[in-house]
């Protein structure tokens, strides 16, 4: 029988990540991750490397340290008594080289009894935006009343309907912060690395949400939000970027208080 190759001819999955959650009771040395897996018989990492050359196991949560992470967990348990603590230290990921099939890698990892959860996080193209790059707000039909839009123009007639008193964090991969409709917000990047090819999409999203009312370009659904921050999952992972956003909620709140 011909052996099935673990390689793919065309790198259609280039950029895919395999997310792994070891059982909470599994103890892994975060300083010697791959070595400890073999040494402690957690799994056959040496065999995995042989079948899938070029792979590396990396710690998932790096946006914040263990002290801050534990503080977030304790806060979650205070807010929701049904919340069950999870060992976030046991989350890892593998960036798949272009020649490696993430499906084949995932299939082999799921045979490890030490792993409780594993899945593939595929890269996806930025969605197409129809009207966000149109400089005239009159053409932003999503601002209109239903069934065409969300009736943002009506919401503006109420206190807070323009976003005043609201702060938020956007997660994409790239933005142009000095855009004429956005620079007044003083937007900052809290985590990750900007991806140039995603600037158009991220800028369009922020434009739809909070483009300022400044007599040029378009106007956002909530143009007067108190503060805007961003986290990028480029150079990171989506879960790590989410953790970074949660950890920075206190920063967002402090910016809100300064604006009051």
Textual characterization of the structure:
This protein folds into two domains: 17-121; 137-259, 3-Layer(aba) Sandwich (Rossmann fold), CATH 3.40.50. With 260 residues, the chain is an alpha/beta fold. Strand 6 (188-191), helix 6 (199-210) and strand 7 form a beta-alpha-beta unit. Mean pLDDT is 86; it is low at 1-12 and 128-134. It has a four-stranded antiparallel sheet, covered by helices on one side. It has a three-stranded parallel sheet with strand order 5-7-6, with helices on both faces. The chain has eight helices and seven strands. It has helices at residues 33-39, 45-51, 66-79, 102-109, 152-155, 199-210, 238-247, 249-259; strands spanning 17-22, 57-59, 91-95, 115-121, 167-172, 188-191, 227-232.
């Amino acid at each position: 029988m011909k052996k099935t190759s673990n390689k793919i001819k065309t790198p259609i999955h280039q950029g895919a990540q395999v997310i792994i959650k070891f059982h909470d009771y599994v103890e892994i040395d975060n300083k010697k991750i791959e070595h400890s897996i073999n040494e402690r018989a957690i799994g056959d990492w040496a065999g995995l490397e042989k079948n899938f050359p070029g792979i590396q196991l990396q710690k998932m949560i790096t946006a914040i340290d263990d002290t801050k992470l534990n503080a977030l967990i304790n806060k979650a348990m205070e807010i929701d008594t049904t919340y069950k603590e999870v060992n976030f230290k046991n989350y890892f990921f593998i960036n798949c080289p272009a020649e490696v099939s993430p499906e084949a890698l995932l299939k082999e990892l799921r045979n490890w009894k030490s792993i409780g959860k594993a899945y593939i996080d595929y890269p996806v193209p930025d969605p197409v935006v129809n009207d966000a790059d149109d400089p005239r707000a009159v053409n932003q039909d999503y601002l209109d009343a239903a069934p065409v839009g969300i009736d943002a123009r009506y919401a503006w007639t109420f206190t807070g309907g323009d976003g005043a008193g609201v702060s938020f964090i956007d997660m994409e991969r790239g933005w142009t912060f000095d855009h004429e409709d956005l620079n007044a917000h003083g937007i900052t990047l809290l985590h990750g690395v900007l991806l140039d090819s995603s600037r158009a999409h991220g800028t369009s999203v922020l434009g739809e949400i909070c483009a300022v009312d400044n007599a040029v370009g378009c106007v956002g659904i909530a143009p007067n939000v108190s503060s805007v921050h961003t986290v990028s999952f480029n150079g990171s992972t989506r879960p790590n970027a989410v953790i970074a956003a949660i950890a920075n909620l206190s920063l967002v709140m402090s910016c809100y208080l300064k604006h009051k």
